[in-house]
Design a protein that fits this description.
- The protein has eight helices and 13 strands.
- The chain is of the alpha/beta class.
- The chain is globular and about 55 Å long.
- A six-stranded mixed sheet has the order 5-6-7-8-9-10, covered by helices on one side. The chain has a three-stranded parallel sheet with strand order 1-3-2.
- Strand 6 and strand 7 form a beta hairpin.
């Protein structure tokens, strides 16, 4: 079910949950859009819910999915990639220790000292604690060499093991995997100098002059600065071709500009 906005999606999901009652947990799901703002902190519970939904979709679980348009416009991990990246550990089977840790890192899991949230894993000797993206509780996997000796759930607060398990399914935590081949492909398409985010474009010599202030008026190319420039209070920076917005008065800006 596609709805126009995130607010409408939240209300629709709430209404469906109310009318379906006990069956809502198994039949209704909400696909929220990711916050793609640079430096944004994502809630582990929201990330876990999203990856659980993707796992249910890969398993072709029948359910009603409410999604705003913003969520459908974002990148979603393809089903084949999701299924190929997921893996299962079984008690009594052989699983290479180093390869298992490498797979967790590739799937986006963060290594910590103590597991406290979904998407984390911790290592102590031959014991691997991991909180799978699609699980309600973390699991403790005991290795004897490269053999999986025991698998148990444990509580986050007490860190004490509870019920034993025969196997555990580990799904990706990130939709863009930490893949070296993908990193190489992205870097091959990147242009510019290393460690440089942006560079100011030179101002055209034929830039029009402001009739009121008497100095070079920045052209469109000059506005492609590392800081978005606006046609007001321009002051000459240290770079000859860079004009940036200044917090000083117009008189000081005019004097700085006339020096050039």
């Amino acid at each position: 079910m596609v709805v126009p906005t995130t607010d409408v999606a939240e209300r629709t999901f709430t209404d469906l949950t109310y009318y379906l009652g006990e069956r809502a947990a198994e039949t209704v799901a909400l696909l929220r859009p990711r916050d793609e703002t640079l430096g944004a902190l994502e809630s582990p519970s929201e990330r876990s819910a999203r990856m659980t939904l993707l796992a249910d979709m890969c398993a072709r679980k029948p359910q009603v999915i409410v999604a705003p348009v913003a969520a459908l416009r974002q990148y979603v991990m393809p089903r084949r990639v999701f299924e190929d990246a997921s893996f299962r550990l079984r008690r009594g089977e052989t699983a290479d220790w180093d390869a298992t840790l490498a797979r967790l890192y590739r799937l986006g899991y963060a290594r910590v000292d103590v597991v406290s949230a979904a998407g984390e894993y911790a290592v102590r000797g031959g014991i691997l604690d991991v909180f799978p993206a699609t699980a309600d509780l973390p699991v403790r996997i005991e290795f004897f060499g490269d053999e999986v000796d025991a698998i148990r759930r444990f509580e986050v607060q007490s860190q004490r093991s509870t019920e034993p398990l025969d196997a555990v399914q580990i799904a990706p935590w990130l939709e863009i995997l930490r893949d070296e081949s993908l990193r190489t492909s992205v870097l091959a398409r990147a242009h510019g100098e290393p460690n440089v985010v942006s560079r100011c474009a030179p101002i055209s010599p034929a830039a029009p002059t402001s009739p009121n202030r008497g100095w070079g008026w920045p052209t469109t190319s000059a506005r492609r600065c590392s800081i978005i420039c606006t046609p007001s209070r321009w002051s000459c920076s240290k770079s000859p071709g860079c004009w940036k917005r200044s917090s000083t008065g117009s008189t000081r800006n005019a004097r700085a500009a006339r020096k050039h």
